[in-house]
C-alpha cells in the first residue's frame, strides 16, 4: 500500500468508527481522595462519579477506608510530601487553611464566579472554603452530629415508650434495653466514635456556650472546671450501655446492629442514615432520629468539602484541569445536591432547595439548623474537625480514649489532662 493509500485507509477507519474512538478518549482525569466507604456512603459518592463520567471525564477513585478520615489524611500527607497529590481530597475547614499555607491548594475562583457561589452559599460556609480570599475548596453538605438513632420496634419490645429526651431518660432506656437482652447503644470503640459521644455530652451538660469556651477558646477554667468533670462522669456511666462487642468496630457495622434489631440506639452523625437508606428503611417508620438527649436546640455540625490541589507537573494539563473544575462545578449544582444528600443523610449546603424532597429527619435537620442559626446555637464539631485543627482534635481523641480504656481514671482530672494535651498540640 502506498503511503497515500495507508493514510486514506486510516482516515476511513476513523470515520467508520468515530464513536468508538471518541468514547474511549477521556477529556481528562480527576482523582479524588475520600473516605466515604460504607455501603450507603459509597452509593452517595457514586452519584458524583456518574455525573463526572457522563460529562466525559475519568473519575479516579482513591477511597481510603476508616471512619472519621484519619487514615485518609495520613495517605494524603504522604502523597503530598512525595509530590504526588490527588486532584481533590475530602478535607475539613480548619485543615483547608493548613494545606493552603503549604501552598498545595489551587484557586477555583473561576468556577466560583461563573456559578455565583458567593450568593449560593451561606457566607459563613463560603468564608471557610477560601484561603487568603480565594476559593480553594467546594462544600458538598451539612452533617448534623448531635443525633440519637432509634429502632422503635426494639424500644417497644424492651418497654421503652418514648424517645429519650434527657440523659436520665437515656440511661433508663439503656437499662430497659439491656434487661430485655438487647445491645442498648450500638457503638464502635474507635477514638473518633468515643469522642462523638463525649462531644454530645459536652453539648448536653455544658451547652453551646460551654462547648465553645472549651473547644474554640480553649478556656482553661472551662476545661478544668466542675462541669467538665460531670461530662466525664456521664461518659463513664454511658459506657456501661455501649455494645460490649464494639471494640474497634466500624460505625456502619454498628449501625447494622440497630437496623437488624440487635441494638436499640446509636449516637452518630447523620451519615448513619445513609446505611438505613441503603437498606431500604424509612424514617419515622423503621427508624427515628431525635437530637442527642439534653442537646435540643443546639446544632453541632460538620461540612464535607473537597479541597482542590495543584497538580503534579506530569498531570498538569488542560484536560485534568477541566476535569477538576467540572468536579467543583457539579458539586454545587442543585440536582447533585438533592441526590447526593438524600443518599448521604446530610442536608444541602446551598440555599433555597426544596426540602419536601427529603425525609423527615433531613427536614428536621434543616429546620433545626435554621433555628440554631437564629438563636446563636450552632456548634462547629470538634470531633469532626470543624472547630479545631486535626492536631488538636487528635489530642482530644487521645484523652477521651485513654479515659474510656482506664476504668480507674479520675473524671475530675481528665479535663486538666485534656487542656495539657490541647496546649501541646496547638
Ligand atoms: C465524617 C464525615 C462524614 C462521614 C464520617 C464517617 O468526618 O464528615 O461524611 O464520612 O466522617 O466516616
Description:
The protein has 426 residues and is an alpha/beta fold. The protein has two domains: 3-143 and 302-357, 3-Layer(aba) Sandwich (D-Maltodextrin-Binding Protein, domain 2), CATH 3.40.190.10; 144-301 and 364-425, D-Maltodextrin-Binding Protein, domain 2 (3-Layer(aba) Sandwich). 53% of the residues lie in helices and 12% in strands. The chain has 20 helices and 14 strands. Strands 2-1-3-13-6 form a five-stranded mixed β-sheet. Strands 9-10-8-11 form a four-stranded mixed β-sheet. Strand 4 and strand 5 form a beta hairpin. Helix 3 (39-54) packs antiparallel against helix 17, helix 11 packs across helix 19 and helix 13 (226-239) packs across helix 20. The termini are far apart. Residues 1-22 have low confidence and may be disordered. The structure holds beta-D-galactopyranose. Residues 35-36, 41, 67-69, 143, 271, 302, 304, 384 line the site of beta-D-galactopyranose. Beta-D-galactopyranose binds at residues 35-36, 41, 67-69, 143, 271, 302, 304, 384.
